[in-house]
């Protein structure tokens, strides 16, 4: 009630807003401890899994390939954008005010938008990498050169940065005079839009167009890559060969399904069901970064062998 009362104090325009209230999950206060422990456990697994994955890739020479270069960057992105969200959410479980400064909200929004968009483009890059590896294996080392890999990853971050600059500048030039209470556990587009008293039609159209420009190309690249992959794999006569080819793609498909499934579910959820939107947001802000290292390590023979070697080396040193 205190948070709600604080959040309802109006302001005449966005320049007078100095902070926001992150309402978070509308649950009984006694459940905050349980949610805090759950967030802490998930975030600890994210740190352990993604730092571990990056360490394995950087220390094992056998993993010095384009696929693992992309996977290392995926782990970095997952680690970073979950760290933008989780610590503040955990602090708010114990905070009475649940406030976040205007600059803090804008920074959180900018960084999260940057890395979530970069992940989408990186997943499309990984699909293209699998397409070359399976459909043109003899030319793989030539086509997926070190220079091209660096350019593709840099391009993913660049697209994320441009998109984030546009989204952040559009969102934080809105007037926030209706309320200071953001009905979410982090600063996101739709909750901020709900508390704005600006005419949102143009904003919605630009935001929708920008989302289409970001999402459609990545999905198209992924779908076309896998259509060619399936076509090529089905031409392989031996069942063992088909199984091996599909196994190199199954982890990537799992990651893509979880991320895009959660994103589509969240944005297709009507505004009148904000709690459902929060649950969907949890899937791609915390659950996906937690699952990605598990998916790749459990289903990847090279990663399991590299992990075993790393653990054996540590035991010898100890």
- From the 3D coordinates, which CATH architecture would you assign? Up-down Bundle
Main-sheet strand order equals 2-1-3
Q: Mind summarizing the main beta sheet?
A: 3 strands, mixed
Low-confidence stretches: 1-15
Domain count: the total is 1
CATH class: Mainly Alpha
Strand portion? under 5%
Question: What is the helix content?
Answer: over 70%
CATH homologous superfamily annotation: Rhodopsin 7-helix transmembrane proteins
Order of helices and strands: HEHHEHHHEHHHHH
Amino-to-carboxy terminus distance: 54 Å
**Class from helix and strand fractions:** mainly alpha
Q: Which fold does the CATH topology refer to?
A: Rhopdopsin 7-helix transmembrane proteins
How many strands appear in the DSSP assignment?
Answer: 3
Rg over C-alpha atoms, rounded to the nearest angstrom: 22 Å
Give the mean pLDDT. Answer: 85
Task: Give the number of helices.
Answer: 11
Question: What oligomeric arrangement do these chains adopt?
Answer: single chain
What's a concise summary of this model?
The chain has 318 residues and is an all-alpha fold. The protein has helices at residues 2-7, 32-59, 66-92, 102-135, 140-143, 146-171, 189-194, 201-234, 239-268, 274-298, 301-317; strands at 19-22, 99-101, 181-182. It has one domain: Rhodopsin 7-helix transmembrane proteins (Rhopdopsin 7-helix transmembrane proteins, Up-down Bundle), CATH 1.20.1070.10.
């Amino acid at each position: 009630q205190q948070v709600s009362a604080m959040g309802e104090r109006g302001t005449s325009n966005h320049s007078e807003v100095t902070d926001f209230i992150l309402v978070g999950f509308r649950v009984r206060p006694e459940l905050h401890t349980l949610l805090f422990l759950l967030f802490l456990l998930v975030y600890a697994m994210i740190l352990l899994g993604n730092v571990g994955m990056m360490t394995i890739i950087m220390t094992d020479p056998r993993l010095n390939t384009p696929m693992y270069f992309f996977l290392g960057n995926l782990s970095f992105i997952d680690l970073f954008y979950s760290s933008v969200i989780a610590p503040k959410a955990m602090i708010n479980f114990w905070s009475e005010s649940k406030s976040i400064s205007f600059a803090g909200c804008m920074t959180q929004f900018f960084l999260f938008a940057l890395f979530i968009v970069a992940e989408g483009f990186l997943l499309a890059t990984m699909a293209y990498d699998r397409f070359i590896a399976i459909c043109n294996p003899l030319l793989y080392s030539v086509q997926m050169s070190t220079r091209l890999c660096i350019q593709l990853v840099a391009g993913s971050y660049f697209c994320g940065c441009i998109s984030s600059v546009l989204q952040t500048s559009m969102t934080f030039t809105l007037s926030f005079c209706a309320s200071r209470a953001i009905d979410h556990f982090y600063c996101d587009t739709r909750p901020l839009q709900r508390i704005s008293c600006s005419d949102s039609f143009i904003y919605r159209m630009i935001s929708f167009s920008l989302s289409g420009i970001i999402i459609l190309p990545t999905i198209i690249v992924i779908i076309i890559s896998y259509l060619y992959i399936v076509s090529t794999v089905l031409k392989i006569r031996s069942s063992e060969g088909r199984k091996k080819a599909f196994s190199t793609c199954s982890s990537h498909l799992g990651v893509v399904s979880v991320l895009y499934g959660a994103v589509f579910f969240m944005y297709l959820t009507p505004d009148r069901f904000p709690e459902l939107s929060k649950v969907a947001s949890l899937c791609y802000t915390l659950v996906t970064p937690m699952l990605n290292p598990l998916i790749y390590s459990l289903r990847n023979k090279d990663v399991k062998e590299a992990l075993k070697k790393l653990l054996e080396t540590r035991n010898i040193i100890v």
